[in-house]
Amino acid sequence: MGDYMSIIPAAVLRNLADKLYEKRKNAALEVEWIVKQLAVAGEHEKINAVIHMLNVDFTYSPQANHRKGGLIGLAAVTVGLTKEAAQYLEQIVPPVLNSFLDQDSRVRYYACEALYNIAKVVRGDSIIFFNKIFDALCKLSADSDANVQSAAHLLDRLVKDIVTEGDQFSIEEFIPLLRERMNVLNPFVRQFLVGWITVLDSVPEIDMLGFLPEFLDGLFNMLSDSSHEIRQQADSALSEFLQEIKNSPNVDYGRMVEILVQRASSTDEFTRLTSITWINEFVRLGGDQLVPYYADILAAILPCISDKEEKIKIVSRETNEALRAIHADPSEGFDIGAILFIVKRQLASEWEATRVEALHWIATLLVRHRAEVISYLNDIIDPLLRAFSDPSDEVVLLVLEVHASIARDTTHFRRLVGLLLRNFQSNHLLLEKRGALIIRRLCVLLDAEHVYREFSASLEGEDDLDFASIMVQALNVILLTSSELSELRALLKKSLVHPAGKDLFISLYSSWCHSSVATISLCLLAQAYHHTNFVIQSLGEEDINEKFFIQLDKLIRLVETPVFAYLRLQLLEPGKFIWLLRALYGLLMLLPQMHHLRLSHYSSPNLTFCTSKLNMLGSRLPQQSATFKILQTRLKTVPSYALNSEQLKRALSGNPYSQILQIADEINKNHDGGNMYSAINFPSRMQQFQNMQQRHRMHMKMKLQSRHSTSSTLSQELRRSEGFSRPSPVQDISRPSSGSSWSTAGTS
């Protein structure tokens, strides 16, 4: 202490540690004058001794007033040294920086004041401590004491001035420090960081744009801050950087794209909008540089196409269209597999607009890179098939176009038909709700004849006979009702006179045999009336059931539509088309009349079960009476002038429905219909139909036997579980009266 007192008087040292600021200030002025004299005299050792004394005895003292005096004393030493102060900064600055962490807010305040005065003297020479100063200021910006914050703000402004006016600042060393602090949530720190980013970006010599990927995510994170001022400052900084990107020839888009993609899924609308806007600009500016990142970009914009915010939807759609318009090649890094992976994932989106755009992407890729897309077909086929069940018609129509594009070659066409059949088989609701739409659209996209031939070929050998019958019935209704299939119907009408019509008829007939009504419909369409009669007459009682009547009801009503106008006109010449007349009367005979359907007047015990079944059937078919009247009315309009008088006389007497068939038989003897059908081997077709129907009959018997067996087993198990024995007298009332008795295992 004695050595120091020989340099600085004891009174000055006492005042330097006084509790009154004015005394400390006056003492500091004394220290400044003494150091100035020492510097002029070149007494460097004494100067070092003074600095050491101020550090040890004052700035690191446990007494707050000593620490305050030490800080103001170090600032005074620096002012006294003026130009020579730079060589002593290693001894002066660290104690001041350490005081920023002091528990006493007044000490922290005087530390700011001291460093301000020191930096004002040495200016650019203080840059060597920039990172430490920046770290200290970052913490002080969020200080709990408002005075400390104010003092730190003044110091911050001075440091910014020093950095911007010199060339000693190292951006490379600063960026890691900035990056570490960008995710701090404190609003004061955020304002402090954005302020520094903006200042440094304004310096032409500092390339902040080149380091933008290092702190871009932090800026985007600030866009969702609760403070409007911080959001505004972050947005302003981002806007400035985006403008620089537009004007810069060299930009590292890749690293920034990764950040933007993540931010595009933010829960904050403003953040999503800003990130999508940036992506939009990148797609327009980046060109080939963005090719390797297309999948990432697509993953960001497809969900945003369905965003609830209209601005986001508009920008996302623009970006998507611009991205899809770019013709990239796999040789340039365009990863088709990655694109398809993203698209596949988005096909499961809950939003229709996103699913639609995902399908547009697959369609586009199929046009440009068909071979590559086909190589990934196994990865995307399942979601493409599930899309058939999509609630949106637009999605279904688009996925049909995709499937049609895939099915341009025979192998994939057959696979498509096979997969569709399996889908329909496992999901009957899909067939019911969307089957007609799917099949009609495929007929437009892939040629109706080709589609129907392939369906028929696949269904001919179908093991699931119930499904085969349902599918054929669906195909038949579509064939008879869809405007898209008018040319196919026109070709089938020529089946007896045209080779192409014959081939088509034979091709469809093989699977149409799964349904008797569908076979009858096909024969009527092909004008094979002679064969129609044989099909009708071959039907047995097990073939005529509820399902048969439902299908027949549809056919009778279709006869009254424009599709069968030619058939109705042919009835004007019953003599020429007697087999048509006979076929229609045959159908009429199969239709039940409601008041004739119930068989309660039959008393034979053997007919009891059949009677109840038919009565039940009649109760389920309230429309049959109307169907009967429709066909009956049509047949009444057949002119009688084409029949000879004897035939007409017989037709008008007795039962017209039975006698007209006899008349038809006689007229047929005078009309050689055999030549008319010589182009098609109808006996062979008839055998084919009968064989198929026999398979269906056997299948139905096996199903009934299985049901009865299951029912019997369940009944036995139930009796065992209830300890069933001979019924009580009360139960005997319900015994059958026809001689049957209860089966019992013993007496009770």
TrEMBL record:
This is Protein VAC14 homolog isoform X2. Residues 707-716 have a biased composition (Polar residues). Belongs to the VAC14 family. One of its GO terms (biological process) is phosphatidylinositol biosynthetic process. It comes from the Eukaryota. It comes from Elaeis guineensis var. tenera. Residues 430-596 form the Vacuolar protein 14 C-terminal Fig4-binding domain. PANTHER family: PROTEIN VAC14 HOMOLOG (PTHR16023:SF0), TAX1 BINDING PROTEIN-RELATED (PTHR16023). The gene is LOC105033996. It is found in: Endomembrane system. Keywords: Membrane, Repeat. It holds the Pfam family Vac14_Fab1_bd. Residues 696-748 are annotated as: Disordered. Residues 734-748 have a biased composition (Low complexity). GO terms for cellular component: endosome membrane; PAS complex. Its main location: membrane. Signal peptide: none annotated. HEAT repeats lie at residues 92-127. The keyword Membrane applies. Residues 696-706 have a biased composition (Basic residues). InterPro entries: ARM-like, ARM-type_fold, HEAT_type_2, Vac14, VAC14_Fig4p-bd.
